[in-house]
Amino acid sequence: MFYIHQTVCVSAQKTNGLIDLDDIQPIKDNKLQAIEPNYDAIPPAMYRRMGRAVRLASGAALPLLNTLTFNGIVIGTANGGLEDCIKFLNQIVDYNEGKLTPTNFVQSTTNAIASQLAFFSSNKGYNNTHVHRGLAFENAALDVAMMLNEFPDNSYLLGGVDEISAYQYNIESLAGSYKKESISSAEDLYNSKTTGSIPGDGCTMFAVNKQKTGATAKLKAIGTIHTDKVEEVTQYLTNFINKNLGESSLSLFLSGENGDSRHLPYYSACQNIVPNIAVERFKHLCGEYATASAFALWLACHKIQHNNLKNVLIYNNFRGKQHSFMLVENA
Amino acid sequence: MSRVFVTGIGIISPLGDTLSLNHTALKKGICGISTLQLINSNFAGKLPVGEIKTETQTFKEKLKITETGYTRNSLLALHAFIDAINDSKLSNEDITAYNTALIGANSVGGMCLTDELYKDANSKSQGSEYLSSYDGGSVTLAIQERYGMRGIINTINTACSSSANSIMYGARLIQNGLATRAIVGGSDSLAKYTINGFNSLYILSDEICRPFDSERKGLNLAEGAAFLVLESEEIVGNKKVYAELTGYCNANDAFHPSSISENADGPFLAMQGALRKANLQPNQIDFINTHGTATENNDEAESKAMLRLFEKVPPFASTKSNIGHTLGAAGAIEAVYSILNLTEQEIYKSLNYKNPIQTTGLVPVTAYTKMTINHVLSNSFGFGGNCSSLIFSKA
Fold first, then answer.
1. Distance (Å, whole) CA A39 – CA A48
2. Min distance B199 CA to chain A CA atoms (Å)
3. I need a surface site. Which of A51, A168, A269, B100 has the fewest CB within 10 A?
4. How confident is the model at residue A108 (pLDDT cuts 50, 70, 90)?
5. How far, CA to CA in Å, does B329 sit from each of A195, B109, B114, B198, B337?
6. CATH superfamily of A217-330
7. Is the predicted ipTM greater than 0.90, yes or no?
8. pLDDT by residue (tens digit) across A270-314?
9. Is a pLDDT exceeding 90 seen at residue B200?
10. Considering only CB atoms, which chain B residues are within 8 Å of A126?
11. What residues of A are in contact with residue B96 (Cβ under 8 Å)?
12. By the CB < 8 Å criterion, does A126 face chain B?
């Protein structure tokens, strides 16, 4: 599909700047909120108007936009600037549809992120925003893969971003997405045997193209399926492996397990499809959010490069209904 | 790369809930814009909008919805989706095949439920039935779940150009060999959220909109949905074919969050790229279905872009004068109208136009006209500089 070159990962861990994954940052108040990046490159007047998602994405993308040239920008985000959205909604209700300021409204459209990045870099090329909840990032990556198939000499900025705001937290809490008991470690999360997970947020940006030289890793294949049936997921995985891995072996299975007892059967069943392969989990690092798979892709690239792995299979599912597989190989 | 054909159409708009009703209304030059009624808002009884005068509950009954969490947006999308699959005579096997994709688009998602969202987001409720229905993805997921679809499923939101991009994405899936069939389109329902949003930007007209008129005062918001069944030439066989999607392009204006630049680079690049993709010269375009929202900024910028690209600007019109601006659904609804131009070999007049914009002097089509049409260009431009153009050609 394509080669991944530079990356920037803004997460709850030390993944941006000096990377240190041994010094695990703790879960605070049952959340894993991203450590905000350096915003010096953003003009202060602009910075003040930005909601968290646009801010995280700008902080993550600017180092790449300032040093590389892209033919387009493709972002996956389930909710974009939901905080701005509810702020505007609250204005509507609280001021009974009176005279409202448009800033929150303009920032709330999910495409505000990709368009802000285009604006920063005067990028008039392809610009798209995928919002398909738990597969928003995968669809964005597939979009870029198609663009590179159509225009093999091009380079694209691919990103996944979602924010956790108080409003989002309220809605998801009511929906039963989060754990009620206190979670302060990976053990707590994965051994809980209860429903729900812990929320996280973050933004990961990838500079990608078809050039092998200098690449960190290669995204070999993406597969997605919507179903709540475990056997459909395992069947899909079996086909995915036969088609994309052939006879070669896997170095690592990176599992999106999130501590939610309702989702565990899918992860266990998929692990059983690739037995005797090392398994690692990542949600204790980034928390659960719709585009956490972008973090997983970054982690796979990091592990391939630093642990000298041949390949990594990422399996993630969102709410037990949207499943994705990404096969990442060394370049 | 495979050719991509349109084999099914489903549409619901202020002009009617079938393709034939929409066609008749366009032909007669009917305007479906009326005063806001069905939303509990200070704007009700005052603001002109393209509202479908059917209560949400009536849609639920008509579509036999037993699932919880269906929003008006999902209902409009489902309505158009059902018509599209029936029109293309797709079997259940076709719909659930791994190589059948579903690409939806919308801008407001379930935020049409302003009051429920307000309570849920601010912890003022025990949780409504809509907790998983607020995001844009929920609209497409409702259809996917109802039909058990297994192929690539996606939702795009690039504001007002969303469903032009979903059509484009579906076509590219086919051309890249990732699907043989893609059901593509978009929907948006009127919402207190968007009405107040556009109002805060001072771009809503308090009268019925007048695209490309020198005295235009802004846009009218509207609601609707449209889906197209796209099929590759390999599987299309002897099926009825409405048109071929020959060109498409997406570009960004990279200028301002809510207005287009002086030179209209985004619109120009989108139209130019679509021509290049279709391998057509500008003089081969017979008609342009413009974005034509009737805002001060859009119509002048779009006119400038047309003047930049076309030595002689072809006949053009804006169906926003018939239905208003359906936001995330606009690209798909207007794709349907562009296809009607091709299948019927006729163009529909742009309503409420009197005098040209001084700086550009362009005059839209003001009378229903029968003419030879081989290629129609359709424009969709959105907030954030997201500009997309599609070209449909006679099959």
1. 11
2. 8
3. A269
4. confident
5. 37, 11, 20, 16, 12
6. Thiolase/Chalcone synthase (3.40.47.10)
7. yes
8. 999 999 999 999 999 999 999 999 999 999 999 999 999 999 999
9. yes
10. 250-252
11. none
12. yes
